[in-house]
Amino acid sequence: MRIYRPLFILLLGLLIGERIGHAHPGHSRRRATSSASAAPKSVRQWTTPDVDRSMAGTFVMAMDGVVQIRREDDSLTTIPLDRLSPDDRQFVELRLKQVREAVDVPVLLAQGTQRKSRPQDAKKAAAPLIASHFDPFVKRKAIRTRWDNNYFYVESNGIPSHRMMVGIRSWQQQVPIPQKYVGDNAWQIPLNPVPAQTPAMADDRFLRGAIAVAVNGIPIFNPLNNRGDDAYEFGELDDFGGHCGRADDYHYHIAPVHLEEAVGKGQPIAYALDGYPIYSYQNAEDPDYAPLDKLNGHKDAKGQYHYHATKTYPYLNGGFYGEVVEKDGQVDPQPRAEPLRPSLPPMNGAKITGFEETAKSSYRLTYDVNGKSGTVSYTLKENGTASFVFVDPSGEKTEETYTPKRRGPGGPPPRKGGPPPRPDDNPPPRDDRPRRKEDRPQPRQQTENRRESNLPQLSVSSSSIDDDGKLSVDCTCDGKRQSPAVAWKDAPEGTKAFAVSLWHTAPDQEKSYWLVYNIPAGATSIAQNANPGGTVGWNDRRKSEFDPMCSKGPGIKTYHITVFALSQKIDLPPDQVTRASLLETIEGKVLAEGTLDFQYERAGK
Fold first, then answer.
1. Domain tally for the chain?
2. Are residues 173 and 299 in the same domain?
3. Is residue 285 classed exposed, middle or buried when 0-12, 13-18 and 19+ CB atoms within 10 A define those classes?
4. Which is higher by pLDDT, 36 or 600?
5. Looking at the structure, do residues 441 and 485 belong to the same domain, yes or no?
6. What's the rounded Cα separation, in Å, for the pair 181 and 525?
7. Looking at residue 100, what is its pLDDT?
8. Overall average pLDDT of the 130-159 stretch
9. How far apart are CA 130 and CA 333, in angstroms?
10. Residue 70 lies in a domain
11. pLDDT of residue 11
């Protein structure tokens, strides 16, 4: 017996429902009557002999060896066709025979000779199978779902019912704030996924935005963060595998296997944005057990592809078996998260120990630094305003109020002894593909994502970088962790000091690894692992030192060393100088600058 695809069933169901003497399945609890003697009744008792179980319900659809039934309480359930009684299988065959007899109807629709079905018509006719997988959270009113002929839409506020944030050991001072994933800004999943001719891997792509949506409406991002590091290994995730992004938007980075308790064993816990389902961990005793491919997926006995969660990288779908559109480093389209406040720098040594709702729309996050506690308390108001109270481990208290219209730099004063907040910038991603020596930008070239400048160019070189543009292992965490050598020439007259910045552009932010300023005007170089001869500012780990490259993610990444020739020295204390604040301070004081690109790939990756 041939099993028809869901879209085909939905379209025909709309047009032949009256002919076969049924009300639309699942939308009437009354038994339908019909003069067609061959037509089965709307509500019937379904039996599965292997477990001696029966239930009342209406037939919704059949696909890929699975029958979907709507119970009398309006809930959906699925049963493998081969587990039904012979009478039930005969019933399904009769329904499908009636569909086949109307096979000319979708042809007429395609030719435009009849009215096309509207999204609401399709929903009245039958829910797609995917709807049953999200249904437990629809019933809890945690999410809303809808669909048309092409997509299944999931609306949520981005806040799960489980405890968030606790267990994070690497924290960038984000807190969960509801998002408006509704209307045109809802998550959308293809109902008719199409296998890609060349599957897209996610180990060096899709580092921005989500790659999947959990059945509780929470987005799932690439296991690698926007720097290309394994977010789980870096201690950035809470006990449920999630954290907040720079827009205070909560999301997972590994498979939320805990959701299997809500949806039932063997049911999908998420859907990738290519339309294929994601299941929990494999069990060697499962009937469909088979080795996983490089995408963390495989086909079942009926040829249907799906992904599985794993306890090691990539943890969920390692890319996309189905077709997706990639734009600006992420799957397109997908909802936008709206930041309410500027992003803040990491808080070194902080571990989140508590998160609770203290009153309606009021929350308190508790963290520990070296045995002392700090808190972030905030209240969300109906007009979108948020009031924050920060109490750092020393007891210092600061307050700040944010409104939805506020954007750009600002936010709470820096913590005692800490750097100021980073600007809330969002530079476009760089092309981090490895380049041949002849393809690498030369020091005098202006490359993408550099500061716009018509200034004279310094010539920058480094003996720590080989002829292929690769950084010496001694300057990474795989080696001796030494600061690299840097040399420059062609400084113009009037230069009073130099500044050096070693940085990397991730898809949604710039990362700073080494910052030195007020290098004497007569200097022309810094030797490897030597005193730089100037003042060392903060790296992104809030330390005044060189932070060696230590990427956990696979693939070659591109980094940059920029040297600035300045018309005067910088009058700032080192514990207040970040890359962002340095660039702001030297504006109008740069006589010349030059940038050297180099590559680094983590050993063993």
1. 4
2. yes
3. exposed
4. 600
5. yes
6. 52
7. 56
8. 95
9. 20
10. yes
11. 41
pLDDT tens profile 518-559: 999 999 999 999 999 999 998 887 888 999 988 655 567 889
Statement to judge: residues 370 and 312 lie in one domain: no
Tokens, residue 308: 């599985």
Q: Which residue shows structure tokens 């088979």?
A: 290
CB 361 within 8 A of CB 346: no
Owning domain of residue 320: 150-332
Nearest 10 degrees: Cα torsion 160, 165, 166, 169: 150
DSSP assignments along 286-321, one per residue: STT-----TTSEEE-TTS-EEEEE-SSTTSS-SEEE
Residue 308 placed within a domain = yes
| 394 and 445 part of one domain | no
460: in domain: yes
Does residue 423 register a pLDDT over 90? no
Residues 85 and 221 reside in one and the same domain: no
**Per-residue model confidence as pLDDT tens digits over 283-315:** 888 877 889 999 999 998 888 999 999 999 999
The verdict on 372 and 263 lying in the same domain is no
Q: What angle do CA 466, 471, 473 make, to 5 degrees?
A: 110
Q: What is the pLDDT of residues 366-396, one digit of tens each?
A: 999 999 999 999 999 988 899 999 999 999 9
CATH of the domain at 111: 2.30.30.700
pLDDT band at 91 (very low <50, low <70, confident <90, very high): confident
270 part of a folded domain: yes
Alpha-carbon gap, residue 455 to 590, rounded angstroms: 8
Report for 30-44, 265-279, 570-584: range of highest mean pLDDT:
265-279
Q: Are residues 168 and 263 in the same domain?
A: yes
d(CA 520, CA 101): 87
Max Cα distance, the chain (Å): 100
Q: What share of the chain is helix, strand, coil (3-state, %, to 5)?
A: 15, 30, 55
